[in-house]
Structures are given as C-alpha cells and as structure tokens.
Amino acid sequence: MAREQDHMLHRGIGMTSQRTRERLIQRLYEEGISNAKVLEVIRRTPRHLFVDEALAHRAYEDTALPIGNNQTISQPYMVARMSELLLEAGPLDKVMEIGTGSGYQTAILSQLVERVFSVERIKVLQDRAKERLIDLNLRNVVFRWGDGWEGWPALAPYNGIIVTAVATDVPQALLDQLAPGGRLVIPVGSGEVQQLMLIIREEHGFSRRVLGSVRFVPLLNGPLA
Ligand code: SAH
C-alpha cells in the first residue's frame, strides 16, 4: 500500500480503533444482522473516512452523523439491514442507489454486488463521495448527478434499488426500472412516520413487505449545484 494511502486510511483514528470497529460488528450481529458477507464488508470499510475529521472518533458508533448540506451518513445498522434485505434472495449484479451522500453505503454495496449506479442531487457531496471511492480503489461504481425520483432510466433495468432518503410515496420511475424479480428497498412516509419497505417485482405486479419504523432525511426534488 502506498504510504500516503496508508496514512489516509488511518487518519484520525486512535489505538482503540480496531477494538471499536469490532464492537460495532458485534453489536450489529446482536441486533439481528446475520449476513456474514455484509458484516465482513462493514468490518473492513473505514467509515471514519466518510465523515469530517472532527467526527472521525465517532465513526464506529451505531449512529447517523452530519456530513454537511443538512444531510447525514446513515446509521451502520440501517446500512447493514438494507444491504441484507437487498441480498436476501441471492447475489445481485446491477444495483442502483438513490442518495449517495457520503458514499458510505455506496462503498459497502460496491463490495457486495457487481456494479453500483449511484444517484445524488447535491453535486459537492457527490464529488467528495467519488474521491473517497477512488481512494479506496472501489471502481465498480458510476455516479449520476440528478434527481432520484427519476432514477437512471438509460441504464435500467436494475436487479436491486436502494433509496437512502425517505420518499412521500414510492417513485413510479423506480418501480418501472426494476428488473423481473428485482428488489427495491425504500423508506416511505414523512416526518416521524416512516416505514422501511421491501418491494419485489413479481411476474404479475409487485409484492410489498413493511419492515418497521425508520428515520431518514427526505427525498427532495431536483438536482442542486
Ligand atoms: N447513504 C448515504 C445517506 C445520505 S442522506 C450515506 O450513508 O452517506 C440522503 C442523501 O440523499 C443525501 O445525500 C441527499 O442529498 C440525497 N437525496 C435527497 N433527495 C434526493 C433526490 N431526489 N435524488 C438524489 N439524491 C437525493
């Protein structure tokens, strides 16, 4: 590993880091995350590189943290749970993510599926996320600056779609862009009342599962420079 990269990977992280990281994995396991691949990928992905240096010491707490522009990096449990739901029926090759944010969920997904197509409306967040993924040598991701309500029709269909912001209702475009058997994991609702949903494209129509209450920032409209 290049010295600079080595330095970067360890920046802001004290002697206890390895232990803190192990504790997070243990906690996710105890809270019901059972997919060993998901746990392994979270174990080896340096979440502290996805937040400001000033917050790096809190990166392995199971909590959402601010990333600027009124947005947050998702809670590790939620990242794990949503990844696990996507992968529940077997491996996936094409996955679209709506809401790149810090790029943390993107980085996790990129190590679990063949290719990730990630859409973000805030340009500066996207640019930073891109850099982080390049630094970590995660190359199977392409980024689109645009409106997640519209998905990324040119490259559809997708075997999996994950939305990391809460939608007032399920965007029709995302349903349209699901491949047969494809899975959409999405928080739906508003304010305090939000439910995580798993929607699957069946032979005729869609099946829906409600998986419990969650807390996300809203899925907004339109791209933002
Ligand atoms: N998975 C990210 C979560 C970021 S928070 C992480 O762990 O860092 C949700 C993200 O969704 C924000 O970056 C926000 O800008 C983005 N977002 C909100 N509405 C959107 C839309 N309509 N299209 C694309 N991205 C959107």
From TrEMBL:
<protein>
    <recommendedName>
        <fullName>Protein-L-isoaspartate O-methyltransferase</fullName>
        <ecNumber>2.1.1.77</ecNumber>
    </recommendedName>
</protein>
<dbReference type="InterPro" id="IPR000682">
    <property type="entry name" value="PCMT"/>
</dbReference>
<keyword id="KW-0963">Cytoplasm</keyword>
<feature type="active site">
    <location>
        <position position="74"/>
    </location>
</feature>
<dbReference type="GO" id="GO:0032259">
    <property type="term" value="P:methylation"/>
</dbReference>
<keyword id="KW-0808">Transferase</keyword>
<dbReference type="Pfam" id="PF01135">
    <property type="entry name" value="PCMT"/>
</dbReference>
<comment type="similarity">
    <text>Belongs to the methyltransferase superfamily. L-isoaspartyl/D-aspartyl protein methyltransferase family.</text>
</comment>
<keyword id="KW-0949">S-adenosyl-L-methionine</keyword>
<keyword id="KW-0489">Methyltransferase</keyword>
<dbReference type="GO" id="GO:0030091">
    <property type="term" value="P:protein repair"/>
</dbReference>
<dbReference type="GO" id="GO:0005737">
    <property type="term" value="C:cytoplasm"/>
</dbReference>
<dbReference type="GO" id="GO:0004719">
    <property type="term" value="F:protein-L-isoaspartate (D-aspartate) O-methyltransferase activity"/>
</dbReference>
<comment type="function">
    <text>Catalyzes the methyl esterification of L-isoaspartyl residues in peptides and proteins that result from spontaneous decomposition of normal L-aspartyl and L-asparaginyl residues. It plays a role in the repair and/or degradation of damaged proteins.</text>
</comment>
<dbReference type="InterPro" id="IPR029063">
    <property type="entry name" value="SAM-dependent_MTases_sf"/>
</dbReference>
